[in-house]
Amino acid sequence: MSEISYLPDWRSENFHDQGFLLLSASGHDELFEQLVKALHALVNDKTHPIVIYQCLPKKRLELVYHSPLKNITKTDHQLLSVCSVQELIDTSLAYRTLKDKHQVLAYVGYSPAAKAESARDVEALMEIATHQWRLLDARRMADQQACLKAIHSLIIHDIQRLESISQIMERYAERWLATCQASGMCLFYQSDVHRLGTCPSKDELRALLPLLKDESVKPDISEEVIYYQDTLAVQLSGTGQDDGWLLLFRARTLMNQMADGMEPQRLSHWLACETDMALTLARSLSTAIIKLENTHENPPFIGTRYSFNDAS
Prior knowledge:
Elements: H1 13-23, H2 28-43, E1 50-55, E2 61-67, H3 85-89, E3 94-99, E4 104-110, H4 119-157, H5 165-180, E5 184-189, E6 192-197, H6 202-213, E7 225-228, E8 231-235, E9 245-249, H7 254-258, H8 272-297
Antiparallel strand pairs: 1-2, 1-4, 3-4, 5-6, 5-9, 7-8, 8-9
């Protein structure tokens, strides 16, 4: 009987420890942190930063992790504004991809001085990180979809007791913010602006509306989503309103932390699974708005269980 080797010679004990930490990551931020630590250990070069860029629609890149901030040099500042693969190629870093079956999830840039014998270890780490990324996506999406479905059921159940979109926002938007892990949200509908949480002013939001309607910046038809700075914008569907939009906001922290050299805690990026969640929320809102309008056009008969003036 031939001997089975469970630990190939080229994998060090440190590599297995780092791989285990990747597989034990409980969230995307923790996954990014563990991947950066593992790469620093493998390439044995602390002088170059390690960056992770998420792939957005139309092959755009967005920085989601950069470490360490305190070692950023003047020439490395371009890493903070990289928006395409070509711009990443033009930097001084080597890079690898986190690639799913059908798409590239992210690009990871690191020191070009990595030893040749580390190449297989780096590729293996990328495979482990990709597996964990997909697993975290699935878990998060399942949890968020369950929360959104529960809130949607509540709205539909109480729709005859609601008189306006403002009431929907007042009752349910806090739960949406928690579910989406957003700092603020805004709903454009029929020239009205409904806000909750930390948002731009109404005047700033109205100034943003023409940009959302600009065909030159709209995504592919299949995407339905626009990324604008720290904003995730989704157009409402089926409401008959061209200016019906749901906007979710997150506060950017990276640029503010550069001055004092702090490590990044959470950037304002939006993951692919969160984009899917925003689409689900927008469809839920569209359905609720349509039902609200239909209820007002066809008020219930006297004697039914609820009237519009019932107490909440």
